C-alpha cells in the first residue's frame, strides 16, 4: 500500500482568480495555462463576457488533455448600473463606469467564496487586487499566492517611495530626487509621480491594504525572469522580505494564434520596442 502511494503522487489543484483589467487578466490566464501544461489541475474563475477573451484557447488546452477548466460566474452588471457586456477595463465606454466595475468585483466575493467552499483546492492564486482572498484561504485551511502584474523594479521603487518619501525633501515639483535603496541611481521629480504617491488618496489606502495582505500570503508570483532584473529580484526577496517566484514571460508559452483578440492593440509600435531592445 505504501509503495502504491509513493508511485502515484497526488495532483496539485489550483484555483486562479484574475482581476478584470486585461493587463492583469491575460498574463494570469497564460500563467494558469502554463501550470496546466505541467499537469497541475487548474480552475480559472471568471465571468461571462471575460471568459470569451480566452475561451477558445482553454478549449484547445482541454482537447489536448490539459487539466484546465473555467468556472464562469454571472457578472452583476445590473446591480451596479452597468450595461450588459461591460465586464473589464477594455470594455468601458466612459470613465464613470470604472468605479462601478470595482463595485461589481465586491459583489462577486460571495459566489467566489461559495465556489471555493464547494471545491476546496490546494491553493488559491489571486490577483493583488483581491486581498480578501488571503484571510479566506487561511479560514478554509489552504494557501494564497499573490499574482503581481507589475515588475520587480516597480515594486522595489514603490516600496522605497512609500517608506522613505524622498519627494518630501525637495523644494519644487521640478527638483530631482534619488529613489533610495535601489541598486541603480533612479532620479525622479514630483511631477513624474502618480497622484496617489504625492498625496494620500483612496488608492493609496488600497495599495497599503494590498501590501498588508501580501505579507499574510504564501508568496508572490511574477511574470518576469531573473536575467531581466536580477538585482531587483534579490532586493524584493532579501530587503523587502517577500517569498517570490519569477516564471515569465508567460506569453511565450502561448501560440501566436492564442494571442489575437485578447486585448487592445498596443499604443507603441512593436518595431520601436524591438529596436529599443
From TrEMBL:
Q: Which organism is it from?
A: Kingdonia uniflora
- In Swiss-Prot or TrEMBL terms, this protein is called Glycosyltransferase N-terminal domain-containing protein
One of the Pfam families matching this protein, by short name: Glyco_transf_N
- Superkingdom of the source species: Eukaryota
- Describe the location of the Glycosyltransferase N-terminal domain by residue ranges: 14-250
Family in the record: Belongs to the UDP-glycosyltransferase family.
Cite the GO molecular-function annotations of the record: UDP-glucosyltransferase activity
Keywords from the UniProt entry: Glycosyltransferase, Transferase
Amino acid at each position: 500500500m505504501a509503495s502504491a502511494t509513493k508511485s502515484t503522487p497526488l495532483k496539485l489543484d489550483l484555483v486562479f482568480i484574475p482581476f478584470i483589467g486585461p493587463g492583469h487578466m491575460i498574463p494570469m490566464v497564460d500563467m494558469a495555462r502554463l501550470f496546466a501544461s505541467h499537469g497541475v489541475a487548474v480552475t480559472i474563475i471568471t465571468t461571462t463576457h471575460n471568459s470569451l477573451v480566452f475561451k477558445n484557447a482553454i478549449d484547445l488546452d482541454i482537447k489536448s488533455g490539459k487539466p484546465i477548466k473555467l468556472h464562469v460566474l454571472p457578472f452583476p452588471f445590473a446591480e451596479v448600473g452597468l450595461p450588459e457586456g461591460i465586464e473589464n477595463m477594455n470594455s468601458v465606454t466612459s470613465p464613470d463606469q470604472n468605479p462601478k466595475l470595482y463595485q461589481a468585483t465586491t459583489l462577486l466575493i460571495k459566489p467566489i467564496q461559495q465556489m471555493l467552499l464547494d471545491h476546496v483546492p490546494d491553493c488559491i492564486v489571486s490577483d493583488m487586487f483581491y486581498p480578501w482572498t488571503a484571510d479566506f484561504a487561511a479560514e478554509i485551511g489552504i494557501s494564497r499566492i499573490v499574482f503581481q502584474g507589475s515588475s520587480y523594479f516597480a515594486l522595489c521603487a514603490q516600496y522605497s517611495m512609500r517608506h522613505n518619501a524622498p519627494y518630501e525633501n525637495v523644494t519644487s515639483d521640478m527638483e530631482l530626487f534619488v529613489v533610495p535603496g535601489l541598486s541603480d541611481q533612479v532620479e525622479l521629480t514630483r511631477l513624474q509621480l502618480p497622484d496617489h504617491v504625492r498625496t494620500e488618496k483612496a488608492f493609496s489606502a488600497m495599495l497599503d491594504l494590498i501590501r498588508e495582505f501580501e505579507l499574510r500570503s504564501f508568496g508572490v508570483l511574477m511574470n518576469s525572469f531573473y536575467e531581466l532584473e536580477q538585482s531587483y529580484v534579490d532586493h524584493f526577496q532579501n530587503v523587502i522580505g517577500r517569498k517570490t517566484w519569477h516564471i515569465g514571460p508567460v506569453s511565450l508559452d502561448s501560440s501566436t494564434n492564442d494571442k489575437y483578440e485578447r486585448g487592445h492593440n498596443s499604443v507603441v509600435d512593436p518595431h520601436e520596442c524591438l529596436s529599443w531592445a
